[in-house]
Design brief:
The complex is a heterodimer of chains A (295) and B (433).
Chain A lengths: L2 H40 L2 E3 L5 E3 L3 H8 L1 H34 L5 H8 L6 H11 L6 H8 L14 H26 L3 H9 L4 H29 L3 H6 L11 H11 L3 H29 L2
Antiparallel strand pairs in A: 1-2
Chain B lengths: L2 H24 L11 E7 L2 H7 L2 H8 L2 E7 L1 H13 L7 E4 L1 H11 L6 H6 L12 H6 L1 E2 L2 E2 L2 E2 L5 E6 H6 L8 H14 L4 E4 L7 H12 L4 E2 L2 E2 L4 H17 L9 H9 L3 E7 L3 H5 L8 E4 L16 E4 L6 H11 L2 H8 L8 H4 L2 H8 L2 H16 L11 H16 L5 H17 L2
Parallel strand pairs in B: 1-2, 1-3, 8-11
Antiparallel strand pairs in B: 3-13, 4-5, 6-13, 7-11, 7-12, 9-10
Classes of the chains: A mainly alpha (295), B alpha/beta (433).
Chain lengths: 295, 433
Amino acid sequence: MSDAAATLTHDRQRLELSALSAPAVVFTVAMIAFPVIYTVWLGFQSFSSTGKQSYVGLANYARLVSDHEFWHGLWVTIALYVLSLALQLVLGVWLALVLFHAKRLPGIVRSLFISPFMMPPVVAGMMWLVILDPSLGAANYILQSLGLPPSEWLASPTWVIPTVALIDTWQWTPYVALIVLGGLQSLPPSVYEAAQIDGASPFKTFQRITLPLLLPTIVTAAILRSVDLLRFFDIIYITTQGGPGNASNTLNIYGFRVGFEFFNIGYASALMLTLTAIVFGAVLACNRLRGAVAW
Amino acid sequence: MNARMFAARVALPALAVFAVCSDGRAADFDWKKFQGKTVTFLANNNPVAQALLAYKDDFEKQTGMTLKVDGYQEQQMRQRLVTVMNAHSDEVDVFMTLPSREGEQFAAAGWYADLSAMAKNDVAKEYDPAGLSQALLKAATFGGKLTSMPMNIEGPIFYYRTDIFKKCGIEQPKTIKDVQAAAEKIKACDSSVTPFVSRGLKPAIAYTFSNMLHNIGGSYVAGGKSNLCSAKGKEALDTYSRLLRDFGPPGVVNYSFQQISALYRSGRAAMSFESSNELRTVMDGGARLKDTALIPFPAGEAGQVPTVIGWGMAVSSHSKQPDAAWYFVQWATSPAVQKKMALQGIAPPRPSVASDPEYRKWIDEEPVRKEWQAALDVLATKGSSEVGYPIVANPESREFIGQAVQDLILKQKTVDQACADADKALDALIAQK
């Protein structure tokens, strides 16, 4: 076949492939683009309590700046994000190491370790709501049995963020562990053999070999959890609805209430687009970090 | 306008109209008129809807229509409704609504079809629209338009443990001050129980707090301004929050009906101020059946002004078949269906059903049911449907009431600060109209 004929065949194949995949591409773009564009449009509108709509330009975004509840929500969102992510990464790596080294652990025990993240968040929220009830829950019963003072858990403005972070950590640490476990299993054994020959202690081996080699995997887990944590909603809504007071009122909860309880869809859209921008920012930052630690 | 004034000014003339009109048209009425049509019902998956939908097949058999049920939990139902109505979609024909909460708002948005004409002109002989609670019909009337038909009657009532009261030498409370005194005595007499429990969860507080405010003689609005910082308003805020802070369970700021009923049913609360709808839950298992008494919330300086509300069935203004939708509403709020629901513990919004022999027999089976019905009778005759501010942004107003109460329970503000902050935010909401 001549070069010209080969190029023609190649071009034709590309055209056919493009034509065949076009419907799927159009559908996917439409499914993603339409809601985003519609939300952007809504962010420029004002809806009265009765649903009457008017164009207000950037007024919704200007309102954000002076809205105390927005800044409080942002603080709560970031506090929950940082606390939960730190706990999940540390405990996730630890759990992965346990599962990696405990080769004889029965399958059922391994399944139990990773079962929390298979539970729907609403169910997890309901379960913890009952356990942490200050009067009827098991948590305070256990504390008091050990001679410790009871806690108000989710009902305390001081403790609600750490408590919600603990619930999320309980649910999602196994997910992080599973990702890290995959990373551990792909590490080259030769490096460990060399370290063993050189007489490195287990701690030094972890510090100098395992952790640096695992960093790209850990950052990947951090990216996945970041997206979820910044738009954390279900467990908070089930357990506290943003309370007590506004102590756990994240941006997501605040936006939901503004939109669907107070029917101000325009301002809620502005809030949610701002949150989306924050999520994108966090993901971009993590991606850069991932590039920096790649090996 | 209270229920009695309403009865004199509006209900009696309406009764006459209904009586004249409905008899005239009853002969033409045909339940099979819309045979073959499908009506979509957006339902709140609560005990009221569950009791109703147990008879879904009866409706389909009686009318030849198909009933498509779109059921969600309460908040998700509203979320779906907002989406559907904002899109002017005809996906929903009939939806459940709480006129005391969203009535002003939905009516102003034009989401309700006006049922006035249908309730007069297109009714079966046995329907008896005038037999429905006039107070609830009034609560569902906005700008002269009847927006929904009542499905049930409910309100917060006072549950208390007769055995603990006897042990501690306490009489049945007659006033709010008696409730406070009883809580003090129980705290000293039996430290194993929570003396008093009611709603402390921010969005849920207005339901019970409104009863306290009205009993004390306060009002939400005076002269077009928020009135929480009035002497009565501050007294209500102080009394309600102090009862929960000093005598309530730990973590009461997260308490709504589920937690309250669980605490009381388990025997760990001596007094509970919670919805009449919770009777079945509270009595579940039978442990509280013999040691509980029920009364409307004790009187304040203004006497007893209990909160009374009810779920209603509304026809969507975007429905393409409002007449067929009305048939479903009519069937669901008919005396026969409401009697069946009443036998499942759904308090009927019809006095005729409440006095039906079969229902009376069910009521008479347990003393606690008799007290429950007696309390509901007081709610029906003396009740006010004002839960939160009587403004379009009623749901949002409940947030600020709840915030003020929570600030006091958590000792984050003084009464003066809490009411002033709430009044400032609520004045802005009132001004929005």
